[in-house]
Structures are given as C-alpha cells and as structure tokens.
Amino acid sequence: MQKPQAPAPPQSPKISYEKEAKCTCGKTKRPPNCDGSHAKRSKTGFVTPSWQTQLTAESLLAAQEQ
C-alpha cells in the first residue's frame, strides 16, 4: 500500500531549511567560496515556522466550519 501524497507540502519548507543548514551564508558568517546565490533560499529556512502557524490557523478554520 502506498501512502497518500498529502504530506508533500510540509516537506518542501523542511527541504529548504535543510539546504539553509548546509550553507552558513544566510547566517552570521559567509564562507569565502559562497557567492550568495542561495542566500535567498537560506532566508526561507528562517521563515519555515510561518507555514506551521499558517497550517494551524487553517486547521482551526476548518474545525470551526465543521
């Protein structure tokens, strides 16, 4: 039995957070070999908790509608 594709949206922010963790250019120190091309991607790693709050807000709205 295959699992449904439902968990896919929560995984995408997690992937961006893992990419951010690999390079420290989005944090305090920038390695000399980093061109900063993925600095934007690293900032999405910091934004990751927002999708969790958005999901909880959506689940609360869905619970109220029922």
Automatic annotation (TrEMBL):
Keywords of the record, alphabetical order, are: 2Fe-2S, Iron, Iron-sulfur, Metal-binding
Mind naming one GO cellular-component term on file for this protein? cytoplasm
Q: Read off the SMART domains from this record.
A: ZnF_CDGSH
- UniProt xrefs under InterPro entries: FeS-contain_CDGSH-typ, MitoNEET_CISD
**Region listing for Disordered, in residue ranges:** 25-50
Cofactors required = [2Fe-2S] cluster
Q: What is this protein called?
A: Iron-binding zinc finger CDGSH type domain-containing protein
